[in-house]
Specification:
Layout (H helix, E strand, L loop, with lengths): L1 H23 L19 E4 L7 E2 L8 E6 L4 H16 L4 E6 L5 H9 L6 E4 L3 H6 L6 E5 L5 E6 L4 H17 L1
Parallel strand pairs: 3-4, 4-5
Antiparallel strand pairs: 1-2, 1-5, 3-6, 6-7
Amino acid sequence: MTRLFAFIPLAFFAAMAVYFAMGLQEDPGEIPSQLIDQPLPDFELAPIQGTEFGFTDDDLQGEVILLNYFGSWCPPCLQEHPMLMQIARSGVVPIYGVDWKDEPGAGAAWLQRYGNPYVRVGDDASGRLAIDFGLTGAPETFLIDREGRVRYRHVGIITEDVWNETLRPMVEALQRS
């Protein structure tokens, strides 16, 4: 019986090693979203200070779009911004922006300084819509189909590789269907 107790720590260690090894097989950059294949939540965003138009969930229906969360306070958003400008210039897909938890006027000043790739920009200063989307940080981008359903969530910076290898093929496939 005492010999059996001697193997308990070894069995515990083996079980923990298997558990952690299984965890290493998962992609840490892929964060699941409860919204995938679900309709957008109902919302109405006011325009950011200095712009004319905000938008609602109804505005995001009828065409395939990208919905991008950003903030003037967000260094990765600045790193991503030239790629968003390139995507906007390409005309492949319209991009709507959500200025998340920014000071009044800061988002508009940031877009004026660096350029505005967005068709419309809404203000989510309270972060309420971000909660509905399950946002974990900025930047995050959601691919929305014609029916207003979330089809994909990209957490982090959209790089040229992410655009060419993941997002653009998905956008084009949704536009063809």
